[in-house]
Amino acid sequence: MLDEAVLQIKKIRDAAQLSEIKEITLEVIRPFGYDRILFFSVSPFKILWAHGYWFTEEIDENQFIQKCPIINQISHVDTPFYWMKLGAHSAEGDYQLVDKPMKGVLSGIQLPVFGRSGLVSSLSLGGTQIDSSIEVEYILGILANQISLYSRKLLALSTENNIQGLTRREKEIINLLSNGLKQRQVSEILGISERTIENHVRKVRQKLGTTTTAEAIKIILGF
């Protein structure tokens, strides 16, 4: 089983889409009793992809932090750790750190991933019949690192393509906003209405998949 997991993990480097990495991840973790996945970046904290029922069908960053405060533990450790939920339902109960999870109870492992700048991402896996042996923990650690490395590469490529898809006007507006100008000032400089400015900015956020203009500016300036 462990050898098969290693062979599956090797396929991640050849994945052309995030969906392929997700499928490979599921193939690796299912034999070990895991059926829920949450992969997120740390700075900024952003859920990159999720699978399985955690609290609701759709989970966002605020929900996760509120309902699973144990996630804050990752900033204080440099090794994987196990958690267990006390409560009968996924959306109820308290979470606590454990040395070894119990069978039949929603439990999981948190696998922090470190880069040159420190903690960069983390993989959270959950299930009710998980294998917490040291051998499996080692395999999952390798999995987390490969997911982080190749997912971030695919996301960076996707972001670069999205930036290239911005119009000249959209780039012009974002450039002015990045210099500290207000939308009113930008509208005066370009001779167009504030509503038009807001429409362009909203399209930029949609293309880049961000919720705030500040985040969109940060992404664009990073390329």
Automatic annotation (TrEMBL):
Superkingdom, natural source: Bacteria
Entry keywords, A to Z: DNA-binding, Transcription, Transcription regulation
Keyword Transferase: no
Domain HTH luxR-type: 159-223
Keyword Transcription part of the UniProt annotation: yes
Lineage of the organism: Bacteria, Pseudomonadati, Pseudomonadota, Gammaproteobacteria, Enterobacterales
Protein name (Swiss-Prot/TrEMBL): HTH luxR-type domain-containing protein
